[in-house]
Amino acid sequence: MVMILRRSEHSTVTIIAVIALILWFTAFSMIIYRVDHELDLCAHGGCGENPAIRDASIKQRILAIDNMEENELQSPEIPYQRHPILRKMNQTSNPIYFLHIGKAGGTSIDKLIQGYRRTLYTRKKYYGFNHFDWSYIQMHMMKNFRSKPMETEESGRLDVSRSADVITFLRNPVSRSISQFHYSKTLTWAKNMNASFIDQTLEEYVHDPNKTWFQPLNDGEGGIDFLSGIFKTDSWVMTDNIESEAKEYLRQNKTAACLLSAKRLEQTVWFGLLEDVDRSMKLLQISLGLPETPALQKRNSAPVEYPAPSNEIKKEIERYLPKDMWLYHFAKRLFEARWNYFMSVDGGVYVPPELPPLPEF
Predict the structure, then answer these.
(1) Residue 100 domain-assigned?
(2) Which of 22, 135, 142, 176 is the most exposed place for a label (fewest CB within 10 A)?
């Protein structure tokens, strides 16, 4: 009888020990899962932090960057460092950001890149099909690629030029302006507002002293404001949603905005010119490592042909666009330098172009 009781007590103790071991193992597993889960969240930019606190932190960093750039641009001699980005898109896993300038052939570029990315470069993210400026790229990378090692400059700021593959497509600002004017006549908002310019010729619009819509004549929309990242937060272009003193300074100091835009154009991995499509596509082929030269399809064009403007009206429009015209002149020089380098015209040596004389704003 005593033996039976002892065996029963021993069995009970064993059962209790097994149950305790199971409970301990379950609790330990839950702790391990929680740690792993939190580490996974951190890897994807979460880290269990409050989104509002995270966004505030990003905003503070962007403002700090803006302040550093403003200090640089306000120096007695505005610094201009050459940044020849001569790598190719197929050499990195960087995300691609397309700075889509309105009425410059950007819709066609979006469709083209998307088609090739689907077949060849699924590892590379592509951000396009929208209008955003340089400040948006900076903000977007800080929010979405925090787990990815990103290049920084000596100042500690995010170096977009090395952490992202920025591309863009430029057009002669006068031609872009004319296209903007005619295309806008077909848009719903213009028809709903019964906008006066709908019934005007280009000449009548340019000479109209009472016009209230200036988008075709806005200096900066042809490239400068996109590259310098100074669109206002309430504009039709996506930004970092921050109004800073540095941005306002660049809006007022047009020379500084031009130089910053030229610097960032040099930081693009690829850019093309609508007036030089064939060679632009050849350079795109080289950058993407494609077996053949892509064909750029014309998309999102005006539904009807419009009469060619006179040389006089072209010159009048050009006078509205000194910043964008200066950038376009530099872009043509930079395009030739890149063409000569990638086609080995200069023996495979990159020769950076000289800056054109700056306008007297």
Answers:
(1) yes
(2) 22
Number of domains forming the structure of the chain:
1
Whether residue 34 is contained in a domain is answered as: no
pLDDT tens digits, residue range 169-219?
999 999 999 999 999 998 888 887 878 899 999 999 999 999 989 999 999
Query: In what helix (H) or strand (E) does residue 272 lie, and over which residues does it extend?
Result: strand 270-273
Given the structure tokens 């340019």, which residue do they identify? 206
Identify whether 137 is part of a domain.
yes
Residue pair 197/181 in contact by the 8 Å Cβ criterion: yes
Name the nearest CA neighbour of 238 among 127, 80, 334, 123.
127
Collapsing DSSP to helix, strand or coil, 341 comes out as: helix
What's the longest Cα–Cα distance across the chain?
120
CA distance 228 to 220: 9
Torsion over CA: 279, 109, 122, 141 (sign): positive
The residues near 153 (Cβ < 8 Å, ≥ 6 apart) are 159
